[in-house]
Amino acid sequence: MVGISDSKVDSLNPDLIGRVSEYIKYNDKLKGMACVHGTNIAGTAVGTMNNGYGRPGICSGCDIVANDYGSFTDIEELVAAGAKVINCSWAMCRMGSVKYRENIQERINEYYDDGIIIVAAAGNGTDCNKDKIKVGDSLYPASFDNVISTAGVYLKNSFYEDDTWINPENN
After folding, report:
1. Which residues pair with 85 in a beta bridge?
2. What is the reported pLDDT for 125?
3. Are the beta carbons of 111 and 79 closer than 8 angstroms?
4. N or C end of the chain: which has fewer CB within 10 A?
5. pTM, rounded to two decimals
6. CA 16, CA 23: separation in Å to the nearest integer?
7. Where does residue 6 rank: exposed (0-12), middle (13-18), buried (19+ CB within 10 A)?
Protein backbone atom coordinates (compact mmCIF):
# COMPACT_ATOMS: atom_id res chain seq x y z
CA MET A 1 0.00 0.00 0.00
CA VAL A 2 1.37 3.39 -1.05
CA GLY A 3 0.30 6.53 0.84
CA ILE A 4 -0.03 9.82 -1.03
CA SER A 5 -0.02 13.01 1.08
CA ASP A 6 -0.74 15.59 -1.60
CA SER A 7 -3.55 17.38 -3.40
CA LYS A 8 -6.53 15.26 -4.39
CA VAL A 9 -6.08 12.12 -6.48
CA ASP A 10 -8.43 11.56 -9.42
CA SER A 11 -9.60 7.97 -8.99
CA LEU A 12 -11.24 8.10 -12.44
CA ASN A 13 -7.86 8.59 -14.14
CA PRO A 14 -7.37 5.53 -16.43
CA ASP A 15 -4.07 4.69 -14.68
CA LEU A 16 -5.71 4.77 -11.25
CA ILE A 17 -9.15 3.20 -11.73
CA GLY A 18 -9.67 0.67 -8.95
CA ARG A 19 -6.34 1.57 -7.31
CA VAL A 20 -7.46 4.16 -4.72
CA SER A 21 -8.39 2.13 -1.65
CA GLU A 22 -9.27 5.07 0.58
CA TYR A 23 -9.46 8.84 0.78
CA ILE A 24 -8.78 9.84 4.39
CA LYS A 25 -9.54 13.58 4.21
CA TYR A 26 -9.04 16.73 2.16
CA ASN A 27 -9.30 20.28 3.49
CA ASP A 28 -8.60 21.84 0.08
CA LYS A 29 -11.98 21.97 -1.65
CA LEU A 30 -10.69 23.66 -4.83
CA LYS A 31 -11.92 22.32 -8.16
CA GLY A 32 -10.25 21.89 -11.51
CA MET A 33 -6.46 21.80 -11.24
CA ALA A 34 -6.64 20.71 -7.58
CA CYS A 35 -6.23 17.07 -8.66
CA VAL A 36 -3.35 17.53 -11.08
CA HIS A 37 -0.33 17.17 -8.77
CA GLY A 38 -1.75 14.45 -6.53
CA THR A 39 -2.91 12.45 -9.55
CA ASN A 40 0.49 12.80 -11.24
CA ILE A 41 2.30 11.61 -8.11
CA ALA A 42 -0.13 8.71 -7.67
CA GLY A 43 0.37 7.72 -11.32
CA THR A 44 4.15 7.81 -10.92
CA ALA A 45 3.80 5.58 -7.87
CA VAL A 46 1.18 3.02 -8.94
CA GLY A 47 0.09 3.74 -12.54
CA THR A 48 -1.32 0.70 -14.34
CA MET A 49 1.04 -1.07 -16.73
CA ASN A 50 0.08 -2.04 -20.31
CA ASN A 51 -3.22 -0.17 -20.44
CA GLY A 52 -2.30 2.06 -23.40
CA TYR A 53 -2.47 5.19 -21.23
CA GLY A 54 0.12 7.25 -19.39
CA ARG A 55 3.10 5.42 -17.99
CA PRO A 56 3.54 2.46 -15.64
CA GLY A 57 4.07 3.33 -12.01
CA ILE A 58 7.03 2.26 -9.91
CA CYS A 59 4.76 -0.28 -8.22
CA SER A 60 2.07 -0.84 -10.84
CA GLY A 61 0.58 -3.66 -8.78
CA CYS A 62 0.09 -1.55 -5.66
CA ASP A 63 -2.95 0.30 -4.39
CA ILE A 64 -2.93 3.73 -2.75
CA VAL A 65 -4.49 5.45 0.19
CA ALA A 66 -4.72 9.22 -0.31
CA ASN A 67 -4.69 11.98 2.28
CA ASP A 68 -4.44 15.72 2.68
CA TYR A 69 -1.07 17.43 3.14
CA GLY A 70 0.76 19.91 5.35
CA SER A 71 0.85 18.20 8.76
CA PHE A 72 2.64 15.28 10.35
CA THR A 73 -0.81 14.04 11.35
CA ASP A 74 -1.46 13.38 7.63
CA ILE A 75 1.55 11.03 7.60
CA GLU A 76 0.43 9.31 10.81
CA GLU A 77 -3.02 8.72 9.30
CA LEU A 78 -1.49 7.12 6.21
CA VAL A 79 0.58 4.78 8.39
CA ALA A 80 -2.54 3.87 10.40
CA ALA A 81 -4.31 3.09 7.09
CA GLY A 82 -1.58 0.58 6.19
CA ALA A 83 0.74 2.56 3.91
CA LYS A 84 4.27 1.13 3.72
CA VAL A 85 5.65 3.80 1.37
CA ILE A 86 4.48 7.40 1.81
CA ASN A 87 5.03 10.30 -0.58
CA CYS A 88 4.80 13.83 0.83
CA SER A 89 4.94 16.33 -2.03
CA TRP A 90 5.05 19.26 0.33
CA ALA A 91 7.60 21.07 2.46
CA MET A 92 7.43 23.35 5.48
CA CYS A 93 10.06 25.75 6.76
CA ARG A 94 9.22 24.71 10.33
CA MET A 95 7.41 21.93 12.08
CA GLY A 96 6.63 23.34 15.50
CA SER A 97 9.00 23.77 18.43
CA VAL A 98 12.30 21.94 18.86
CA LYS A 99 10.63 19.48 21.26
CA TYR A 100 7.81 18.82 18.77
CA ARG A 101 10.38 18.16 15.99
CA GLU A 102 12.21 15.76 18.33
CA ASN A 103 8.96 13.87 18.91
CA ILE A 104 8.33 13.70 15.16
CA GLN A 105 11.88 12.45 14.58
CA GLU A 106 11.33 9.70 17.16
CA ARG A 107 8.11 8.69 15.41
CA ILE A 108 9.80 8.67 11.98
CA ASN A 109 12.57 6.49 13.43
CA GLU A 110 9.92 4.04 14.67
CA TYR A 111 8.30 3.97 11.23
CA TYR A 112 11.68 3.40 9.61
CA ASP A 113 12.43 0.55 12.01
CA ASP A 114 9.05 -0.96 11.06
CA GLY A 115 10.01 -0.83 7.36
CA ILE A 116 7.92 2.22 6.42
CA ILE A 117 9.55 4.49 3.84
CA ILE A 118 8.78 8.23 3.76
CA VAL A 119 9.71 10.28 0.69
CA ALA A 120 9.35 14.08 0.90
CA ALA A 121 9.86 17.16 -1.25
CA ALA A 122 13.11 19.02 -0.57
CA GLY A 123 11.46 22.36 -1.27
CA ASN A 124 13.04 23.03 -4.67
CA GLY A 125 14.64 26.33 -3.83
CA THR A 126 12.42 27.64 -1.06
CA ASP A 127 14.20 30.40 0.90
CA CYS A 128 13.16 29.63 4.50
CA ASN A 129 16.03 31.57 6.05
CA LYS A 130 15.12 34.70 4.05
CA ASP A 131 18.79 35.15 3.16
CA LYS A 132 18.14 35.21 -0.60
CA ILE A 133 20.03 31.91 -0.92
CA LYS A 134 17.66 29.17 -2.01
CA VAL A 135 20.01 26.26 -1.34
CA GLY A 136 20.78 24.64 1.99
CA ASP A 137 17.69 25.61 3.98
CA SER A 138 16.09 22.87 6.09
CA LEU A 139 12.57 22.01 5.02
CA TYR A 140 10.35 19.45 6.69
CA PRO A 141 9.54 16.60 6.59
CA ALA A 142 12.39 16.10 4.08
CA SER A 143 15.08 17.24 6.56
CA PHE A 144 14.30 14.57 9.14
CA ASP A 145 16.64 11.61 9.40
CA ASN A 146 15.31 8.44 7.74
CA VAL A 147 13.27 10.41 5.19
CA ILE A 148 14.22 10.29 1.52
CA SER A 149 14.44 13.88 0.28
CA THR A 150 13.66 14.54 -3.39
CA ALA A 151 13.83 17.54 -5.69
CA GLY A 152 13.08 18.24 -9.29
CA VAL A 153 15.33 20.00 -11.78
CA TYR A 154 14.94 21.12 -15.36
CA LEU A 155 17.12 19.92 -18.20
CA LYS A 156 19.73 22.64 -17.53
CA ASN A 157 19.86 21.75 -13.79
CA SER A 158 17.88 24.78 -12.67
CA PHE A 159 15.37 24.39 -9.85
CA TYR A 160 11.93 23.13 -10.69
CA GLU A 161 9.69 25.39 -8.60
CA ASP A 162 6.31 23.70 -9.02
CA ASP A 163 6.08 21.79 -5.75
CA THR A 164 3.84 22.32 -2.77
CA TRP A 165 5.34 23.99 0.28
CA ILE A 166 3.55 25.38 3.26
CA ASN A 167 4.36 28.76 4.80
CA PRO A 168 2.36 29.13 8.03
CA GLU A 169 3.25 32.83 8.32
CA ASN A 170 1.81 33.48 4.82
CA ASN A 171 4.84 35.53 3.76
Report:
1. 2, 117
2. 65
3. yes
4. C
5. 0.83
6. 13
7. buried
CA dihedral 80→85→7→75, nearest 10 degrees, is 40
* 91 touches 122 (CB < 8 A): yes
103-137: per-residue pLDDT in tens? Answer: 999 999 999 999 999 999 887 667 777 887 766 67
Exposure string (b/e) for 74-96, b if CB count within 10 Å is 16 or more? bbebbbeeebbbbbbbbbbbebe
| Length in residues, the chain | 171
Q: Which residues of the chain have pLDDT under 50?
A: 32, 163-167, 170-171
Q: Measured over all CA atoms, what is the biggest interatomic distance in the chain, rounded to whole angstroms?
A: 50
Residue 63 φ then ψ, to 5°: -105, 170
| Per-residue pLDDT at 38 | 87
How would you write the chain as a 3-class SS string?
CEEEECCCCCCCCCCCCCCEEEECCCCCCCCHHHHHHHHHHHHHHHCCCCCCCCCCCCCCCCCEEEECCCCHHHHHHHHHCCCCEEEECEEECCCCCHHHHHHHHHHHHHHHHCCCEEEEECCCCCCCCCCCCCCCCCCECCCCCCEEEECCECCCCCECCCCEEECCCCC
Query: How buried is residue 150: exposed, middle or buried, by Cβ count under 10 Å (0-12/13-18/19+)?
Result: middle
